[in-house]
Amino acid sequence: MKAVIQNEFGDINVLSYTDIDIPKIAKNEVLIKVAYTSVNYADIKQRLGNKGEGAFPIILGLDVSGIIEEVPVNSSFSKGDRVIAFPKNGSYAEYVVANEQLVFKIPEKLSFEQAAAMPTVSILSYILLHEIGQVQKTDTIVIHSAAGGVGSMLVQLAKLAGIQKIIGTVGNLEKANYVRELGADVVCTYETFTEEVLKQTNNIGANVIFDSVAGDVTSVSLSCLALYGTLVQFGNSSGKAGTFKTSDVHSSCRNIKGFSLGTTRQHNPERLGPVAKKVLELFATNQITLPIAQVFNLSDAAEAHKLIESRNYEGKILIKIN
């Protein structure tokens, strides 16, 4: 089968389009013929080696949409089932293996393309908003990187939940209209958001801030977080660690909560099933959607990475496999 592999960490030139063997399934695993995979910023970090050492060759990628090709005995799935999944060993390949707990059937009316855009960002966003952030309708919330995949989904889910005020941040105001169309009430840059949040809340601050950037954005976010507010930290796309002092939280009764979908897939996969069912229904009934920025062929995975790194896109970037 065709796949994109890498044998060392580095720039896009380490990605190699080549032939490898179709993987074999073990107990409680299924083989999936991949239709599409999404490209996430986590792929860039893994390619560069920022997510730790790996046993080469590595196949990048977190999620897929496709058709089940092979199942074990007594499986709850059947050959031919249309699914999304979080594969075991990467997704930039024509066939992948996934644990059955991380495979979810998709409705017939949901296209493989749209389905591929949603697994990581929509399941993550739903958990962040409703379980970690526990956002209330009366809240004012801030969503950093609001034009990205998770940001686009958080804005829509917050709007659907009837959140009082949604403030999105972007690196470039050329993306402002896109974020407003998704449902944000206010869009501002990282340089101006603290001033804007305090203005919008009569100097009270935001109730919940969703931070996937880290670095300076984390500490600056605390300066406009309300008493009893929550900072939800779930990434560091800036490549820098965010810092705070204990005095930033105890006297103000503020919370800092962390969440990782990768950790949850590994250690608590059963948590994802009910959420996947909810978001699949939201997509299938067109209550939410995820704009597709661009679709690349598998052989052009390096170009997809180049676009991700440029940050000059809105929505999700996909790779078409079959």
From TrEMBL:
SMART domains: PKS_ER. This is Quinone oxidoreductase. It holds the Pfam family ADH_N. Residues 10-319 form the Enoyl reductase (ER) domain. GO terms for cellular component: cytosol. InterPro entries: ADH-like_C, ADH-like_N, ER, GroES-like_sf, NAD(P)-bd_dom_sf. GO terms for molecular function: mRNA 3'-UTR AU-rich region binding; NADPH binding; quinone reductase (NADPH) activity. It comes from Ureibacillus manganicus DSM 26584. Keywords: NADP, Oxidoreductase.
